[in-house]
């Protein structure tokens, strides 16, 4: 079986341990062994068949994992335009986004809704079959909303077209969820609350009923499929807990009761705040007519401040918080994903280590593969990136694709390692050399 040995690397294994100088042996699509060394190569046994990649002191770590991805958002400046896009163009846009995630070092992504029922499913299947490059993807269906809820942008005098599925009542919900499950989605997405940018539903409004959410969850559970929700209002966060919705997006207006519930259920709920949407909509969308003044009037500054306070409190209480920024709008285009990692450090006060663990170890958990993804350990899937420099010292390194020296997914290089001579010298020395060469066991 094909073996690749990374030598002379600083291993950031994302178990929570400090980085250490070492070597990592890949066999097939799995990590076979991890060795601590004394900063130089020599720890791992090798035969002639092994491809040796000298990391030159660069950081070897798990590929990044995005918790809120929309492959079918295509950097548009309005939600309306993804409702109008014909399916043929839309498939191409999704293929481009999938490739872009991988180019940015993201080897897994949680689909947070697709603009048409089969887009994510078709792209996931094509990636898994090796037909197109892309990260491992949990495929989602379109956001399911209610008449007048988030995403119902259709003027009432025109035939319905949208990027969402509009249902009213438990029975319509049941039928819609069943139809999406039939197509093979890994997740369903419910829009429980509104969003300031829409005219029909505000962020603090809760528009879906318990009967509707309950029916959706009953159908999803029947097939063992998990659910995620757009939940900004306090009430919508509580609805997520009430109905066992696994992934809570945004969670901006958590009140004391919501915080208590999140803490109580922290072992099976994930919160992905998608702060980059709030941040760029507040401060970086002027070119599209959304000046900071307008965004403030719309309520985005208030929501951003409230969300930051709430998420910090959730973190303090041990709730799992994951990056994933809702990318794919004109003012936060695909390819800028790692900016949400910077938000975790600068806006939420996370340490760089906690931020990276949120994007790797917790990423493996939200992908429902905690024993296979998101860490450098023997037996784990070989999704790894080689990073020029020390991301623990500078979280913005991930934003520069040229600093990603190699990208491997499932044991195969998507980005081949650049020859050492062509690469600038590493900025930092590998840290914490250990006294002996010891295989690290799982
Ligand atoms: Zn989203």
Major sheet size, sense and barrel closure? 9 strands, mixed
Query: What is the CATH homology-level superfamily of the largest domain?
Result: Metal-dependent hydrolases
Tell me roughly what share of residues is in helical segments.
25-40%
Q: Can you tell me the CATH class of the largest domain?
A: Alpha Beta
Query: Which CATH architecture of the largest domain is right?
Result: Alpha-Beta Barrel
CATH domain fold name of the largest domain? TIM Barrel
Number of strands: 19
How much β-strand is present in the residues? Answer: 15-25%
Separation, N- and C-terminal Cα atoms: 21 Å
Unreliable sequence segments = 421-438
Total helical elements: 13
Oligomer: single chain
Counting helices, strands and paired strands, the structural category is alpha/beta
Task: Calculate Rg over CA atoms.
Answer: 22 Å
- Shape, principal axes of CA atoms: globular
Average per-residue pLDDT, rounded, comes to 92
* Domain module tally: 2
Which molecules other than protein and nucleic acid are bound? zinc ion
Layout: helices, strands, pairs:
Elements: E1 3-11, E2 20-27, E3 30-36, E4 50-54, E5 59-62, E6 64-69, H1 80-84, H2 87-103, E7 106-111, H3 119-128, E8 136-138, E9 140-145, E10 164-166, H4 170-183, E11 187-191, H5 210-222, E12 226-231, H6 234-243, E13 247-250, H7 256-264, E14 270-272, H8 275-283, H9 292-298, H10 300-316, E15 320-321, H11 339-346, H12 352-358, H13 361-366, E16 384-387, E17 404-409, E18 412-415, E19 439-440
Helix pairs in contact: 2-3, 4-5, 6-7, 8-10
């Amino acid at each position: 079986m094909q073996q690749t040995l990374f030598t002379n690397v600083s291993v950031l294994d994302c178990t929570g341990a400090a980085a250490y100088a070492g070597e990592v042996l890949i066999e097939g699509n799995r990590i076979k062994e991890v060795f601590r060394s004394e900063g130089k190569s020599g720890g791992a046994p090798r035969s002639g068949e092994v491809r040796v990649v000298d990391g030159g002191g660069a950081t070897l770590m798990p590929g990044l994992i995005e918790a809120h991805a929309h492959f079918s958002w295509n950097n548009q400046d309005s939600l309306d335009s993804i409702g109008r896009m014909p399916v043929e163009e839309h498939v191409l846009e999704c293929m481009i986004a999938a490739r872009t995630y991988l180019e940015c070092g993201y080897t897994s992504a949680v689909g947070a809704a697709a603009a048409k029922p089969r887009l994510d499913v078709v792209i996931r299947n094509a990636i898994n079959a090796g037909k197109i490059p892309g990260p491992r993807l949990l495929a989602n269906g379109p956001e399911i909303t209610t008449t007048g809820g988030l995403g119902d942008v259709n003027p009432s005098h025109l035939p319905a077209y949208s990027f969402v599925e509009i249902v009213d009542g438990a029975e319509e919900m049941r039928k819609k969820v069943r139809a999406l499950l039939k197509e093979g989605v890994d997740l369903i997405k419910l829009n429980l609350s509104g969003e300031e940018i829409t005219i029909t539903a505000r962020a603090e409004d809760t528009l879906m009923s318990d009967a509707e959410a309950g029916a959706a969850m009953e159908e999803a559970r029947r097939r063992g499929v998990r659910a995620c929700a757009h939940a900004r209002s306090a009430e919508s966060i509580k609805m997520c807990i009430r109905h066992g919705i696994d992934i809570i997006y945004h969670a901006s207006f958590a009140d004391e009761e919501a915080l208590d519930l999140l803490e109580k259920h922290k072992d099976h709920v994930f919160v992905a705040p998608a702060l980059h949407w709030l941040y760029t909509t507040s401060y970086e969308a002027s070119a599209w007519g959304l000046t900071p003044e307008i965004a403030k009037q719309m309520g985005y500054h208030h929501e951003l401040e409230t969300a930051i306070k709430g998420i910090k409190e959730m973190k303090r209480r041990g709730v799992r918080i994951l990056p994933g920024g809702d990318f794919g709008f004109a003012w936060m285009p695909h390819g800028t994903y790692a900016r949400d990692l910077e938000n975790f450090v600068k806006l939420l006060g996370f340490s760089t280590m906690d931020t990276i663990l949120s994007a790797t170890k917790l990423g493996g958990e939200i992908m429902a593969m905690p024993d296979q993804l998101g860490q450098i350990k023997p037996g784990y899937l070989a999704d790894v990136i080689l990073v020029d420099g020390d991301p623990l010292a500078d979280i913005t390194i991930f934003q520069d694709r040229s600093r990603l020296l190699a990208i491997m997914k499932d044991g195969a290089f998507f980005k081949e390692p650049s020859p050492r001579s062509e690469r600038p010298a590493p900025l930092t020395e590998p840290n914490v050399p250990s006294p002996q060469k010891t295989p690290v066991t799982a």
